[in-house]
User: Which sequence fits this backbone?
């Protein structure tokens, strides 16, 4: 009976990306109570960009998206204008979307189910939440009040909603729905519904693909 084969060509990269996403989700919010804490959060986000680059590999097209994203991310630490904040968020969203597409392509085109495939599938699922969190943040900047966020959730001293929206994105993707953060505008509600649908479709398609590959290897 065939079993899962261990391949290490990308697994360490995917594990690094998973750790970076978890750090962004769980560790970064602990440091958002001060300016120094916000700088630490920015460092964690920068590490997430680097981890995504490592996971998909360095290639010309990837660098074309990565370099502007990391450059503006660093620039935003010194020039915190709304325009810079919006541009850096948009560039990160584009880069993470590109990385997400490459990882999904990698997972769906593997000829067999391996540890590498499973690690990639997990990364892609979590990156979906990261991408949608950036989209939520863009909507909130362009249309303030698109999300009803309790004041205690917004990172002091700048009232940055990024971490709250990242949390909200993961809650939406997993369809938990605690109700502590809700869309306050119809346009935002549509984006939220789209994430919930895409998340469930991703799970259905990916599981069907992996199970189908495993069964075909057994027959």
Assistant:
């Amino acid at each position: 009976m065939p079993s899962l084969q261990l391949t290490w060509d990308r697994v360490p990269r995917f594990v690094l990306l998973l750790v970076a996403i978890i750090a962004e989700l769980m560790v970064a919010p602990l440091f958002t109570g001060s300016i120094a804490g916000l700088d630490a959060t920015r460092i964690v986000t920068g590490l997430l960009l680097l981890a995504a680059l490592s996971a998909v590999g360095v290639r010309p097209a990837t660098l074309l998206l990565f370099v502007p994203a990391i450059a503006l991310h660093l620039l935003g630490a010194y020039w915190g204008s709304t325009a810079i904040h919006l541009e850096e968020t948009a560039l990160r969203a584009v880069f993470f979307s590109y990385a997400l597409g490459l990882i999904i392509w990698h997972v769906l085109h593997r000829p067999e189910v391996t540890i590498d495939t499973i690690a990639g599938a997990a990364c892609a699922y979590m990156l979906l939440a990261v991408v949608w969190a950036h989209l939520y943040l863009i909507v909130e900047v362009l249309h303030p009040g698109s999300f009803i966020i309790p004041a205690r959730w917004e990172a002091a001293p700048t009232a940055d909603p990024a971490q709250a929206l990242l949390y909200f994105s993961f809650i939406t993707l997993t369809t938990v729905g605690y109700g502590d953060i809700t869309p306050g505008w119809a346009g935002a509600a549509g984006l939220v519904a789209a994430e919930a649908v895409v998340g469930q479709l991703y799970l259905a398609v990916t599981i069907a693909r992996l199970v189908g590959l495993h069964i075909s290897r057994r027959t």
Observations:
- The CA atoms of residues 66 and 95 lie 6 Å apart.
- The mean pLDDT is 87.
- The longest helix spans residues 186-218.
